[in-house]
Amino acid sequence: MPSSSIELELDSLKDAVAMALEYAATLGTTGAEVAISKQQGLSVSTRLKEVETVEFNKDGALGITLFRGGCKGSSSTSDLSPEAIRRAVKAADDIAKFTSEDPFNGLADADLMAKHIDDLELYYPHDTPPAELELLAARAEEAALSADARIKNSDGASANAHTGAKVYGNSHGFLNGYVSSRYSLSCVVIGEQDGQMQRDYDYTIARKFSDLWTPETVGLKAAEKTVSRLGARKIATTKLPILFAPDVATGLMGHLIGAISGGSLYRKSSFLQDAIDTQIFPDWFNIAEQPHLKGALASAFYDSEGVATIERNIISQGNLSTYLLTSYSARKLGLTNTGHAGGIYNWTLGHTGQTFDELIKQMDTGLIVTEVMGQGVNGVTGDYSRGAAGFYVENGVVQYPVEEVTIAGNLKDMYRNIVAVAKDRDMRSSIRTGGILLDEMKVAGN
Q1: Where are the domains of the chain?
Q2: Max CA distance (Å), the chain
Q3: How far apart are CA 376 and CA 357, in angstroms?
Q4: Cα(335)–Cα(299) distance, rounded to whole angstroms?
Q5: Would you tell me the crossing angle of helices 130-145 and 215-229 to the nearest 10 degrees?
Q6: What tens digit of pLDDT does each residue of 91-131 get?
Q7: How far apart are CA 157 and CA 81, in angstroms?
Q8: Which residue range or ranges hold the Metalloprotease TldD/E N-terminal domain (predicted)?
Q9: Is 95 exposed, middle or buried (0-12, 13-18, 19+ CB in 10 A)?
């Protein structure tokens, strides 16, 4: 496997982090952490199979945080010369000397640092010249535009290839880095029927270039989704069962992340305050976090503070098993750091055995939600009200597309009243789930 320039830079990035830590140690600070990330990539976008943009990016910076007791100072530099690094370290120390003391500041505890780090197979270099990415995007558009006579226009396609390197070190003696790759292809098209226009899209994303869907698959899926929305109408205001499509269901679970994150909890701005070991989902519902899946999109052996990630149950038989805590939020709450500085790691929802199509039949009469809009979610109360589009179902059969409706409820009730989770999961994000069926929500339409 050929080495890319980002891979060859990894050792020099580790040297830069080590240099910053060594200099920080001479200043009499009580702790230091240094992180650096570098990314490089190529993006090509087309519209109507003609190139619109070709963008190459290569950027990155070193960030350093120093602690003097509970006082904290941070600075950064994109210049990795020894002198520039020393200036950045000195600047962080000067800031720390003049900041207010916060007793909860400081590095994560030394005994929480990751000890065992293997290759998670996150890096697959692939030579992708602009011409190849242009061809992928154009093929996706071609497939979409020729799929159905009602596809009248394209809103563009984009092909992307990116690699990156991350290094983190701190004064506990932890220093590690790794490289990763990510490739993607998306296509957006516009359909028209009886004077009504609709647009939709689809995409593919993978660590490994060869794992991407074919451009024809992306284009055809985008066209099928767009055509299926033509003829959309409102429905009368009512209460209905709701089936969230998999890519919308990930957002439904995303609200859970915010509610159980340390920052929301110590600010007392979460609708799941003091909810550990309480039932918030049905007793069959489970979410497992799997940080060490090889090749997955959200895998890591340690978080952004060097804390080891571990496999754990987030939800076990409907009960909340853990909060998501950094070193700071754990200290504020008097709890244990869970290694979630920087995000979550491959949440996988358990399922109830049905496919998405089987859940449509089980729902009988209700609304499939394929898109939500707006920001109508209150993290403090859990109140949920968002614009939605999708499909009306009667007798287990899709009848017609629906648009310009609002679905409303409260997340506590919505979570408790989940009826089923489909087994055909969407694997394109850090939350891996199938469609989620709720027994009932308010639907505001005509």
Answers
A1: 5-228, 238-444
A2: 74
A3: 29
A4: 24
A5: 40
A6: 999 999 999 999 999 999 999 999 999 999 999 999 999 99
A7: 39
A8: 32-96
A9: middle
Q: How much of the chain is helix, strand and coil, in % rounded to 5?
A: 25, 40, 35
- Residues paired with 55 in a beta bridge: 43
The span from the first CA to the last CA of the chain, in angstroms, equals 59
> For position 6, what pLDDT does the model report?
79
Contact between 433 and 253 (Cβ < 8 Å)? yes
Q: Closest by alpha carbon to 210, among 126, 296, 121, 298?
A: 126
Query: Distance between CA 322 and CA 302 in Å, rounded?
Result: 18
Report the candidate in 169, 243, 155 with the shortest Cα–Cα distance to residue 201: 155
What are 277-302's pLDDT values in tens digits?
999 999 999 999 999 999 999 999 99
Q: Are 390 and 367 in contact (CB under 8 A)?
A: yes
Phi/psi class of residue 121: alpha, beta or left (left: φ > 0; alpha: ψ in -120 to 50)?
left
Helix ranges (DSSP H) in 230-352: 246-259, 262-266, 327-333
d(CA 97, CA 66): 10
Q: Please provide residue 243's backbone torsions phi and psi, each rounded to the nearest 5 degrees.
A: -115, 110
Per residue in 391-425, pLDDT tens? Answer: 999 999 999 999 999 999 999 999 999 999 999 99
Task: Output the six-digit token pair for 414.
Answer: 């919505």
Please report the DSSP string for 143-201 in residue order. HHHTT-TTEEEEEEEEEEEEEEEEEEEETTS-EEEEEEEEEEEEEEEEEEETTEEEEEE
| CATH architecture assignment, domain 5-228 | 2-Layer Sandwich (3.30)
Q: What is the pLDDT of residue 2?
A: 42
